[in-house]
Structures are given as structure tokens and as C-alpha cells.
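User: Predict the complex with zinc ion.
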Amino acid sequence: MLLIACPHCGNRPETEFRCGGQAHIARPEAPSAQSDEAWAEYLFVRKNPRGVHAERWCHVHGCGRWFNALRDTVSDRFIEIYPMGAQPISELQSEARA
Ligand SMILES: [Zn+2]
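Assistant: Here is the predicted structure with zinc ion placed in the model:
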């Protein structure tokens, strides 16, 4: 079983977590000024890379708190876990945002 290191609870089984999708998506400052295409892209278009991906995770069956993680989608290995609102410090961060 895959263990995920919750920053608040420590290593816990993957079944206690839920992935919240891609991390670091900023809401546009003026939503009403966005074109329909730009707003639809903000709402629906997400990266789906093969490799390192920055994701939001929630420990839904534990502390209930959110955190960010860099995860390799090929190996399912968690490379880095970091707080919401922060940026990853790993040298792989540029790959995750590409
Ligand atoms: Zn937790």
C-alpha cells in the first residue's frame, strides 16, 4: 500500500487521501472581464503530464487539511510535500510547471 506523508499526521495509507487536481491555478483578478474562452480554460483545462506534476491533496479521512505535492505520475512517487500557498523547493519544480 502506498503511504503518503501528511505534513500534519505523518505517513498514512493512500486510501485516507483525495487528490484535488492540479496545484497553483490562480483565479483571474477580474472574472467578468475574461472572455468566455479564457474563463472556460480557467475552469476546465488542466495539465495531465507524464512525469512530475504539482497537485493539491487533502487528508479527507484524517486531519481534513489540504497540502501541495510534487508527484511523479509514472512511478506514483511523491517527490515533495509542501504547504498550501507555498512553492516547491525541489529542482524539479520547473518540470512540474512546464
Ligand atoms: Zn493529516
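The mean pLDDT is 92.
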